[in-house]
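ok here's DMBT1 protein:
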Amino acid sequence: PYYVDMNQNLFLQASLHSSDQNLTVFVDTCVASPDSNDFTTLVYELTKSGCASDPTYALFPSPRSDVARFGFNAFSFVGRFPSVFLRCELLVCREHDYSSRCYQGCVSRFKRNADS
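and the structure:
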C-alpha cells in the first residue's frame, strides 16, 4: 500500500518492458474502486478513452515513448472504505504509427439519434 493525504498530488509512471524498441504506450482508461476485486459495482473514472474524467487528472511529458506518466489528486470513497484501488488499461502501439489508437489522444464518442 501507498499512504497519502487527501488531495495530495499522486504521480504515476507505467513502463513497457520489451526488447522491441519501436513501441509506444498510451494510458487509455483508469478507474478507481474501494474493492480490489470489484471494478464494476462502485467505481470512479479518472480517464476514459484517453479523455480525462477527473478534473485533476493530467498526462505529463515522458522521456521515452515506452513510458507513460500521469497523475491526479488523492481522494477517498465516501463511507467506510479505507482504501482506493486503481486499475488502468494501457495500449501498446508501434512508435510513429500515427494512425494507431495511441496517437489519437482523447476520443469522445457522441451518441447519435436512432431516427431514420
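+1. The domain at 8-95 is CATH 2.60.40.4100 (Immunoglobulin-like).
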